[in-house]
Amino acid sequence: MATTAYKRSSSELYQTIQEISRNRAQKRLRLIVKKPIVSTSITTFTGLLENAGSSNEALQLLIKISDALQFDEPEMGEAVRKLCEHFKKEQESAVRVKILALLGDFAADTSYDGALLANEVLTLLKSESSAKVICQALHSLHKIGISQSLPQSHVAKMVITARNSLTSQSHNVQRHALLLLGAFASVEEDSVEKTVELIGRYTDSQDSRVRAQAFRSILTLGGRGVNLAPDLYPRATDALRDDYECVRKEALQLVYELGTRHPEHMILVPDSDMEMRLVDAAFGKVCSAMCDLSMQVRTQAAELLGGMTAVGSEFLNQTLDKKLMSNLRRKKSLHERNLENFTSGEWSSGKKWADDAPKEFLNAASISLIATGACGALVHGLEDEFLEVRTASVDSMCRLALIHPPFASTSLDFLVDMFNDEIESVRLKAIYSLTMISKHITLREDQLETMLSSLEDYSVEVREGLHLMLGACKVSTQACLKLVVQKILDVLSKYPQDKESAFGCLQRVGQKHPDLCMALTPQLLQDHPFFDSAERDVEDPAYVCILVMLFNAAQHRPPMLSLFPDTTVRHYGYLRDTMPNFVPHLMLRTVVDQTQLTGATGSRQFLETLLHNIDAAYSAPRARQALLEAAQSNLDRLAEIDPALSGTANFTAMFLGAQLLIHQLQSCIAPKQNKTPSRESLNLLMRKCLKLQNLFSHLTKEDWLLVKQISLRASALHLVIVVKDRSQSALAPCQLLLHIAADISVFLQDNPDIVADKFTGSILQSLAAISDPKPGRVFWEILPIVQSATPVVTPRVNVDIRMCTARILEPCNVSSVENQIKVTAGLIAAVPLVADIENLQDYQRQDLRIRIKYPDQNIHTVVPRLRDVKRILTESGEEVNNWRLRTTILLSHGVWTEATHVEIFVCLSVRPGTELELCKSVKIMFAPKPVKRGI
């Protein structure tokens, strides 16, 4: 269809004329004459609408107007007037419906005044009798009202129209009238009660859609700030038995809202003289919905349970037991029963056996304080056949356990059972939920056996999630700790790629169990009290796991240091240098770690002193340039030794580096200089500006202004150098300069409290005065400003700045020929890639790229799938901007004579054809072999 449409449009735009000469030796001329393109002005369409011969033709024109919806504002008034005139004389209801729909679209998609459109719709609605047209008119009014802010007088007219339309016999009209009332009815106390009462009458309508919309409108009023009275509760609970799913869903939401808004309100228990809290009663009703026939209702009920945190503990515990506990009924004392017998005149005669037995033969279900459907509600949710219900039940159980610590211990066994679910997403949800409530629980040995059996799961995400959970939980005994360590080491031998995750798990285990680790130290290190043991391989991942756990435990229990043999002490020095993120600082070496000498206060003081010295040399160019060069190396070193200030140090170093490059390039274009600026320096400057704009987060408004100002300087300098060089087109640099100038102008308008520097103000003023911004004209306007520009002000210290970086975990750097990847030339070798990306914003996730650079300088860029980039969760369940990229890259090339390195980068695409590298490259040996001929 797309090809056909393209051919049709081409045939309409072009006409071919052939002039054939009588002399066949001459060439034929093929001239293409363009036909004039028909204007898409809305007045053109409405003018054709007046001459439409039939309703069908008018409808086709209205559809064309609806497809365009991009018109000039001066034409809109006349077009709306013509549409309304055609509405009044049109007999076909479908055309009138389309006109009203267009008026609603004008309010949402154009800048036309919504008050005028609402007036027109209300005027047309007065003389209308068709239910379809009235329904569309109400819908258009609702669309106009939510798209634009209308005067209160127009809103009042819309509400009056909606009230009058409720008397219609059409259910669609009633439904849209209720929608309009819920969205725009007054929320003042003197009139809102009447509005809620009016809407509440339609909860008993014969049509299910009207009933559902009535409940939805009441909820909309509640969302607008109306205090929904508890009197609505009986009406909502009656609707839970409705035959239609849409009504039950809205009624269930209303029950939840009433329970959470009025938790302490007391209501009577049906068929009893006892009272209970509204939140407890609502909780029971939501639990009963867990047995609904509809999967959507069950899922909604499971989600709502997690939000009812004010429920009583006895009702909460009942959701995990399928048997009703004591019927939750109040038992009468002996004196009360004797009093009833006395007042009734019934006494025992002694002639019959047990004739003085209690006479209260009551139905337990009729007097229970909680409905029997609530018994084991969460258990029913966990056992549901649909994964949506199971996932929502696990999430609600976690949310309730976070608020009620005793419930966390009770629900532990049920969450552990979900580790065996057949759906991976449900297993992950249960693992992360148990991780979040780990501070309230202590694991027993029988529970650990079920958890650890899941460690052999084929899914790497499940295994890493279990590592995170085991590191967050506490175990009760030494046997439990041994069980955890042994299982992790066994699984590590089966899945060596889980090495980093296992290190992190045992690091947290050691931090949380220092006493248990101290008792097991000789056994774990295999240290005999009398005989020297053989020195173990420090490159063995299993041995490193044990050392990581013990070193982190020794950080909290210094007496453990005396239990370490000499070989362990030597291994500590090696691991401390190679794995500083897993091995803490211990007083085992005479040389103090350099990282301990640099605290957060000292690093910040050093940074402030450095920037102060640069500011002091503002008027001395040579001294300032020397300080900038020295500051770059100092800041790079500071970023390495102090991770807390690495983002701030990298940002400042990159900003100062851009200043240094600007100074060098600016000296080349001075009036009396004839130096040729380096193209590499210019490209490096533009890349630094792109990094400042895209790789750093948590910047203040002042920081953003400095970044935009230095980007404006760089783009202006770029244009001047390109025009002077005359070796390439200056159109792209000019467009870039105009784009950055427009961006900084909008930024300054949105933030009037900050002021730009003199250079930025001069550039913006000069560009605003140019009517036709062509590269040559822009060049002559900005040249004197660029040549006389003063240095940029250095940024202030902002310790909250974070830089987006990546770290490739797999594959590792391979330099040996034994570990090379061999493949037949022309075929494909699949290489798994795992990388951690820190401080990546959510909107940048789709801009991740993987760059593969071959030895012949060919570069392939791979776009990973979004589902391959997943967020890394923390123990508390907090979502941070750290991501894990897990994908497979494909390598293929022609024949090489010998194995050569292939470089792999993780990059961030900031514009088409421009990627910023987030990490150092990983080099692997790749050897495409020639195809073997014959057998």
TrEMBL record:
Domain Integrator complex subunit 4/Protein SIEL C-terminal Ig-like: 808-931
Pfam families: INTS4_8HBD, INTS4_C
Source organism (scientific name): Lutzomyia longipalpis (Sand fly)
GO BP term, example: snRNA processing
Cellular localization per UniProt: Nucleus
InterPro entries noted in UniProt: ARM-like (IPR011989), ARM-type_fold (IPR016024), INTS4_8HBD (IPR056235), INTS4_C (IPR057412)
Keywords: Nucleus
Keyword set includes Nucleus: yes
Protein name, as recorded: Integrator complex subunit 4
GO cellular component: integrator complex
Domain INTS4 8 helical bundle: 604-796
